[in-house]
Amino acid sequence: MLAIGLVLLLVILAVWQRHLLLFTPWSNGTPPAFLNTQLELSPGSYWYDDYFLVEPIDSRTFAIGEPRYAQQNYSYLILGDERAILFDAGPGIRDIRPVTATLTDLPITFVPSHFHFDHIGNSVTFERVAVPDLPYLRARAVDNALALTWREHLGSTEGFAAPTLDVDDWLALDSVLELGDRSLRVIYTPGHTEDSISLLDLGSGAVFSGDFLYPGNLYAFMPTSNMGSYLQGAETLLELIEIGTPVYGAHRGPEPVIPRLGVNDMRDLHGALIRIRDKELDGEDTYPVFYPVNDKLDILAEPRVLQSW
Ligand SMILES: [Zn+2]
Hints:
By secondary structure, the chain is of the alpha/beta class. The protein has a domain at 31-216 and 243-261: Metallo-beta-lactamase, Chain A. The protein contains 7 helices and 19 strands. It has helices at residues 2-16, 18-23, 97-101, 135-140, 150-153, 227-240, 263-277; strands at residues 46-47, 53-58, 61-65, 74-79, 84-87, 108-111, 128-132, 145-147, 164-166, 169-171, 176-178, 183-188, 197-201, 207-210, 216-220, 247-249, 260-261, 289-294, 297-301. The protein has an 8-stranded mixed β-sheet, with no helix packed on it. It is globular and about 70 Å long. The model has no long low-confidence stretch (mean pLDDT 93). The protein binds zinc ion. Zinc ion binds next to loops.
């Protein structure tokens, strides 16, 4: 009887701490080796150095890619007349600030799409930092210093210590960032993580979606992922985006271009999430389970028994 109880306890412990058990074996303490990417550059794009790729979207919007980093991150510099937003900063293996300095003299506020180590810049510190005003974050911050937790950051997988952010602005969800002749709405899009936001450009309609949506495998099995929240986030964005407007994600897919999707992909994501919830869509593999969305996207989720809706 005691033995059964003990085994049960161990199983509960393993399920509860599954992310720690899952991610710890990946932790080799160093970032992966740079990729030797031979890229065909799209017109107008250029290498800043041997690491950062600058891809202008228009005269006031720049995608800054890290195609030689294994995760192929993209960050976005969004300019107004008076100030600029840097949406994500990569893992900080190289400092992104000299790149942004060649693109604007405006004061820049760093806004992470979420706190994972490949977006937060780690040891790179910014003049101004703005994060979503979520009650559990605000409650944790001491004098606006927000120490990220392992579950939020996951940097140990590549040897990055979780940083403490000095928060200058707490962004109310659904509030509007005024940049001077350009306005961005802060959209709460949890699902990949509990702290994920997207930005909606109220002028062009473009959406900057972070890890919520990009071409490739969408990770819905992270420590603070939640399938029900993913569905809610997709519903929120579907109400806001219009046909023809681009959705810029934070990781490149197989195509050597800016990770750009659209409203149809958002619809497909939304539809797939509903079908997973209603047990109408079957996945492949055990952990994570691969659910096909369309020819550009898959959702990687936990097995049904661990999914939270
Ligand atoms: Zn992420």
